[in-house]
């Protein structure tokens, strides 16, 4: 009797092992599904984080570019004002110098005209301002 009972015990053990093996397979399949889901979720989070950081960096660079553009415009405006001020100062200096030269020339012309008048030379009257000797013949 023991010979017939022994295979039945082995059959029970075999069935138990099969159940445990099936449970292990199901646990493994469930674990694999969950791990795949977690990995996919993590990948989505990382992609989202990467996109957010990229947007932030782009905005930071754009802000820096705006600041640099404003700084450039401020500098160019200042440079333009300084240029106009220097040009105006040069024009004023040139006008003052021209006035001084004209006054000096007029003064010398007047002295020359008085001297010529004393000596006996007269203006020719051609309107060109040339002074010539009046012939006394």
- Helical segment count: 1
Strand order of the largest sheet: 1-2
Main beta-sheet annotation: 2 strands, antiparallel
Our measurement of the CA-to-CA distance between the termini, rounded to an integer number of angstroms, reads 182 Å
Structural class of the helices, strands and pairings? Answer: mainly alpha
Q: Beta-sheet strand percentage?
A: under 5%
Give the low-pLDDT segments. Answer: none
- What's the gyration radius in Å? 55 Å
Q: Tell me the quaternary state.
A: single chain
Order of helices and strands: HEE
Helix content: over 70%
Shape label: rod-shaped
Number of strands: 2
Average pLDDT figure? 88
Structure description:
This protein is mostly helical and 137 residues long. Helix content is 86%, strand content 3%. It has 1 helix and 2 strands, in the order H-E-E. The protein has one helix at 2-119; strands spanning 122-123, 131-132. Strands 1-2 form a two-stranded antiparallel ribbon. A hairpin with a 7-residue loop joins strand 1 and strand 2 (131-132). It is rod-shaped.
